[in-house]
Specification:
alpha+beta
């Protein structure tokens, strides 16, 4: 996205250079027509073509049509100005260096203003008139001509190098900012304690999940976790959550979505899986957490270590609420069965009791 924005910015700068180039050529052509050299006609075919081309390109600009490449446009206008200078010089009764130098400076002015950051376009625009003027002048003022051309060329080249360095720095900075933004977005979708997805991260993953295959959700709750926190303290409670989270993550596939859904509640989206596989995965999670042997002396009537109860429900659409409600009923029915149990949504009736 950032690269696309940067390219769009460069394209817009190129368009603005084209517009300015067209405008300056139109003004220069109008001035040449309004103030012709003594004893020469106002119109020549090349200056008429320059004016017509400027108007045509200006009309395309107004209608937001795509313009020609700057390098091609600058070369075409340079050739037309070269032709115009040749014709005008042949019509002046006493040609001298003054007309040629003024014509050259006009061409250099247009190129330097419009293409300050485009050395190639500047050179393509100025080269044909420069060679024509050197030929017509027959080398009498070669040093003056070369100086007049070299000075803006060197200046534009230096400006181009500076701008290129600035652009590289700006692009690198934008890429770093984009990376930091992506990092912050990732962090904002993760639970800071467990490193699992939070609800925002869950929704983001669900938005990219395809529902042409069956999916299931597991809703998991640590048994008697309030009693655990009250007796062992919240620091130990956090350590228990971290270990349970790691066990859950290790028990599922990399494509499955593991979310810390509440304080001691977790939700797992099992992608592209059958109910049989969902039950097997739930049992694997239950067993691995039990085998952690996290001491929990207040897990009344269940065990002396941390255990979990799990509810399972199908997830047919991206709307997780109905599936979550079913899994929640199955979860609490599993708790009423004595905890450390697994129950699917179709294993209990509408009253919430196991069938």
């Amino acid at each position: 996205m950032m690269a696309q924005t940067w390219r769009a910015l460069l394209d817009e700068k190129s368009r603005l250079s084209s517009h300015l180039f067209i405008l300056l050529n139109a003004i220069s052509a109008l001035f040449s027509i309004a103030n012709p050299a003594p004893n020469t006609p106002r119109f020549t075919l090349p200056v008429t073509m320059i004016l017509a081309a400027s108007l045509l390109l200006g009309w395309q600009w107004i209608n937001r049509a795509r313009l020609m490449n700057n390098n091609i446009t600058s070369l075409l206008f340079g050739l037309l100005w070269s032709w115009h200078i040749w014709l005008k010089n042949s019509m002046i009764s006493d040609p001298g260096a003054a007309y040629l130098l003024i014509a050259l400076l006009s061409i250099l002015f247009i190129g330097a203003i419009a293409f300050i950051n485009n050395v190639l376009a500047f050179c393509l625009h100025c080269l044909p008139p420069t060679l024509t003027i050197i030929w017509l002048d027959r080398g009498e003022h070669l040093l003056h001509i070369l100086y007049s051309v070299a000075l803006p060329t060197i200046g534009i080249t230096i400006q181009y190098l500076i701008q290129k360095r600035n652009d590289a720095f700006a692009l690198d900075l934008m890429n770093r900012l984009q990376q930091e933004k992506e990092t912050l977005n990732d962090l904002s979708m993760l639970d800071p304690l467990t490193g699992l997805y939070n609800r925002r991260g869950l929704q983001n993953r669900l938005d990219n999940l395809h529902f042409d295959q069956p999916h299931h959700i597991l809703l998991l709750d640590i048994d008697h976790f309030k009693a655990y926190n009250d007796h062992y303290g919240h620091a130990m409670g956090d350590q228990a959550l971290i270990r349970v989270s790691s066990a859950i993550r290790n028990a599922v596939r990399s494509r499955d979505i593991v979310t810390r859904y509440g304080g001691e509640e977790f939700m797992i989206v099992l992608a592209n899986t059958s109910i049989e596989h969902a039950c097997q995965t739930a049992e694997r999670i239950r067993q691995q957490i039990f085998e952690l042997k996290i001491p929990h002396l207040f897990n009344d009537g269940v065990a002396t270590s941390v255990t979990v109860s799990i509810g399972i429900a199908p997830l047919p659409t991206a709307d997780v609420a109905p599936a979550l409600a079913q899994a929640d009923k199955a979860l609490y029915a599993a708790k009423r069965m004595g905890r450390n149990h697994i129950l699917t949504a179709d294993q209990y009736d509408q009253s919430g009791m196991p069938s």
